[in-house]
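Structure (tokenized):
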């Protein structure tokens, strides 16, 4: 049995939770922690969470499909803010939930304390004209100072996501895999092989059942920005020297050949 089939089967064995039930989970003092691993370890994790976690189900589907386009200035302001460790820092993206055909323009802001806040508005599609018509420029200008006259689409990704909720309903776990990147500036595209990105979102520092499971599997915390990693993987001209340790590890998981650039 291949890994994707095992992932599908194990996810199907979890008790379901609906989107309405998910809406009742208010993580008001939320902390986010990311982990990077591979599909073989994900299979082991999905075995361990049986009987302890729900799987979000929408329209009978446990694995959701996403498409996201990131927008940046011609000089890559938002990419460089992240690379250089600036805080607060921001990202502008348009995300489509492909199974429900819902699209949102979002601005993510990470503050000096490591907290991430996301604000969004509904837009008709990922097309620039539709986003602008829906008030996109006013929305982004108010939050970042940039309008859609100042920014361009840079990197798009598509991926699959499993969302788990612990039985105590004090945390959510998003699991992203089969990530593919396309760069609008260079025309380059790449996949990420067996790479898996896990994000734990919990209410403050309450007990987390999955943390012991992750430790048991030797899956350690590791920051991961789909925008920044996708940018480095598809545009060799971007400054990336501060991402070197992270990219070396990701290269081992994906087979990607990383070449440091100090431009």
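Design, position by position:
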């Amino acid at each position: 049995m291949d890994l994707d089939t095992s992932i599908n089967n194990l996810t199907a064995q979890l008790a379901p939770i609906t989107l309405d039930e998910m809406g009742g989970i208010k993580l008001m003092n939320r902390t986010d922690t990311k982990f990077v691993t591979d599909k073989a370890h994900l299979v082991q994790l999905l075995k361990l969470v049986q009987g302890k976690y729900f799987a979000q189900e929408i329209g009978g589907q446990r694995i959701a499909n996403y498409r996201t386009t990131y927008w940046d200035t011609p000089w890559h302001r938002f990419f460089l803010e992240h690379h250089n460790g600036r805080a607060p820092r921001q990202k502008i993206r348009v995300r489509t939930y492909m199974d429900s055909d819902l699209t949102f323009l979002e601005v993510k802001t990470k503050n000096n304390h490591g907290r991430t806040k996301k604000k969004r508005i509904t837009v008709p599609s990922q097309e620039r004209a539709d986003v602008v018509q829906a008030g996109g420029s006013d929305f982004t200008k108010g939050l970042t100072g940039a309008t859609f006259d100042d920014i361009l689409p840079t990197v798009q990704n598509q991926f699959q996501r499993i969302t788990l909720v612990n039985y105590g309903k004090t945390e959510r776990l998003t699991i992203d895999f089969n990530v593919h990147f396309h760069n609008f500036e260079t025309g380059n595209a790449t996949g990420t092989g067996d790479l898996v990105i896990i994000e734990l979102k919990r209410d403050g520092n309450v007990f987390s059942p999955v943390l012991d499971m992750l430790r048991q599997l030797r899956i350690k915390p590791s920051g991961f920005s789909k925008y920044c990693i996708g940018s480095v993987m598809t545009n060799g001209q971007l400054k990336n020297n501060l991402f070197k340790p992270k990219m070396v590890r990701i290269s081992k998981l994906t087979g990607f050949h990383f070449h440091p650039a100090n431009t």
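Reviewer-requested clarification: The radius of gyration is 18 Å. The mean pLDDT is 92.
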